[in-house]
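Sample 1 of the test manifest.
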Amino acid sequence: VTPLELIVSLAAGIFGLRLAGLALAGASIPPSLERALGFVPVATLTALVVSSLVGRLDEGPTRLLAAVVAGIAAYRTRRGWVCIVVGVAVYWLLRLTTW
Amino acid sequence: VDEVGSAPVVEREPSNRELFVRGFLGLLPLWIAAIPIGIAYGVAAQGLGFSIAETQLMSLIVFSASAQLSTLSLLAVGAPALVIIVTALALNSQLLLIGLAVGRQERPSWLARLVTAVFLTDAAYGVALAGGRLRLPVLVGAGVSMFVGWNAGTLIGALAGAALPDPRRLAVDFVVPLTFLSVLLPLIRTRAALLAALTAAGATVAFLWFTPSVAVLGAGLVGGTVGAWWAQRGAARVEGAS
């Protein structure tokens, strides 16, 4: 699959999802399914964070440590960009001091 | 905050154009988040070998930060295309719920539904709801605003990423999990959400052990189900008490 094919397929899928709710307009889906769908994004986001940190333990715990510090900083300040800035800063600090 | 009730004067119904502008301006403060994430995405896409055109096209037609960033992180580990697509859909399942909610409050024409669908995002829905009654032109105005901010950020990031000598060595891909983390933290507001996240974290490690390519998807579904189960228990208890 080329990047272009992947991008177009993704676009079609996401547009379908956006249109589906509107197209069903007022149709009801089972509350249990609706509730489950509500929690899937939180769980999937967590899975992405964990898998990308665990998958890079070849660099030692550098990324994991940087992400933990970034997470605490973002949680305290309630600013999303703090997470990215602190995470990158701690990562480089660790990398430059350990090598 | 809404000022309903404070003015006894009967307001004339604002025109669609006014409502659109209201939505567009209402979303502007969120550019503070959208542009840096767009830049992060643009830089990371360069690191993975996307061309500038591909990077920008994705922001134009996929228009979903979580879908685009999850695609990058799954491509990096060599996940198959089908897994990438299904994961992106699972991440955006709230769009289905938002669409249903919008459809319940308004009965838009088919053209309006198509236009709304193009620009539908969580943030725009939040802005549209903040004005009290949900109005479609506000939702579309806010969505278009997000579209502009997101694509501007992407362009800056793609150009910056292309100018970097060796993005891979600079570990620019690390901004992807950091971005997910920044989006994730504010979503964990309830015990059920926390439980969903913790379950997903544990499940991810377990899945990575034996079937890494579907780890994210599998853990997302397991965590989502557990969170929903917990929320349902809580809801049942409250109903029983009242």
